[in-house]
Amino acid sequence: MSVQKRTHQIEKLARVYDDEIGPVWGSRFGRLLLRDLAIPERGQVLDISCGTGTPTVELLRRMSDGSRIIAIDASSAMLDVARRKVEGLGPLGKKGVFFRTESPIPRLSFASDVYDVVVCNLGLGEMPDVPAALRDFARVTKLGGQLRCTLPLVGTFTELHDIYREVLGKHDRTEAQARLEAHLATYPTAEQCEQWLRDAGLEPSVEVEEFSLLFKSSREFFFAPVIEFGPLPAWKAIAGTGQELQDVFWYIKESIDAYYAGRPFVVTVKAACLAGRKVAAVAAPAAVSPPPERVAVGTVAGADADGIEEISAVTQLPDEPEGEDDGTVDVPLDAFTDGKPRPPHL
């Protein structure tokens, strides 16, 4: 996840996320992330992949004077939304919060053993190696400090996955079946999460909460931003390309509407909060050159151990400039969502 270049599409996604995805997805995980979380006096907090800042704002409400929060995200468009939220808080927004356009991949740029609290709401799903990411998050956490991350567990979207598996089996799509099973294997169990926390030198605790998303029809399901900008691209990649893709999703749509005729299509989400207190030192990984697209943020005079200077209450650290439109256009969903799906070609 490199720093994202600003385009109209990225800016639109930031607005859509905050208006339509965050309230039904990110906020549900965020409440689990922050449940019973206490920030120590003059605590140092790192919010990784902060998005549009919903957890960030709640963290500010729990901070005492003298505390500080660093909020990072790979998308400057997302950070702009978060920054406006903080600036609109009045006196509360005058606390020490600093925004920084930065990706946690391949590793965090911060020094080891700096933060009392490290949080990451739904950012783990974007990491190429989740156990390695947790070890890096633990590295920057102080001994005795807390690390909390959220992600969906195995069993999430199980209703759609069951229909998908049935469709592929009925039509002998063996290669797609193998891709589906590989995709499902990326959802961890609670036991796997506990082991990842132990391996990162943390006393583990995994809290699981289940909730449901309701849709009136298959069309509403596939057009919902939480699906379109969430798991849909991965589901499409499983099906294949071209007519094969169209055929598979035509059958999935037909199955949803047949099985759930006259009632909502309900899908399950199994949300997990991975929490741990750091009880062992974590060795810093070997130095890694930053990815080419990363915005370099140098240490400034008077900066503290993690290279960030206390310069104002609400600060945008050196950020990428807004670029010209690169011609990127919004790509519509494939024909299977046009309301009149084509019959499959067999």
Blueprint of the fold:
Layout: H1 8-34, E1 44-48, H2 54-62, E2 68-73, H3 76-87, E3 96-101, E4 115-121, H4 130-139, E5 141-152, H5 158-170, H6 174-184, H7 190-199, E6 202-215, H8 218-223, H9 225-228, H10 232-239, H11 242-259, E7 265-278, E8 314-316
Parallel strand pairs: 1-2, 1-4, 2-3, 3-8, 4-5
Antiparallel strand pairs: 5-7, 6-7
Helix pairs in contact: 1-2, 5-6, 5-11, 6-10
CATH topology name of the largest domain: Rossmann fold
| Class by alpha and beta content | alpha/beta
Task: Estimate what percentage of residues fall within beta strands.
Answer: 15-25%
Contiguous helical run count: 11
Features of this protein?
346 residues, alpha/beta, Rossmann fold, disordered C terminus
Describe the model.
By secondary structure, this protein is α/β, with parallel strands linked by helices. The protein folds into 2 domains: 1-153 and 188-213 and 270-320, Vaccinia Virus protein VP39 (Rossmann fold), CATH 3.40.50; 157-187 and 217-263, no CATH class. It contains 11 helices and 8 strands. It has an 8-stranded mixed sheet with strand order 6-7-5-4-1-2-3-8, sandwiched between helices. α4 links the parallel β4 (115-121) and β5. α5 (158-170) packs antiparallel against α6 (174-184). The longest helix has 27 residues, at 8-34. The protein is globular and about 60 Å long. It starts with 7 loop residues before the first helix and ends in a 30-residue tail after the last strand.
